[in-house]
Amino acid sequence: MEKLIISACICGAEVTKEQNPNVPYTVEEIVREAKSAYDAGAALIHLHVRWDDGTPTQSMVRFQECVNAIRKECPDVIIQPSTGGAVGMTDLERLESTEIVPTPEMATLDCGTCNFGGDEIFINTDNTIFNFAKIMKDRGIKPELEVFDKGMIDIAMKADKKGLLVHPLHFDFVLGVQMTATVRDLVFMANSIPEGSTWTATGIGKNAWNIAAATIAMGGHVRVGFEDNLYLGKGILAKSNGEMVAKAVELAKILGRPVATPDEAREILFLNKK
Question: Which residues are registered as beta bridge partners of 216?
Answer without folding.
Answer: none
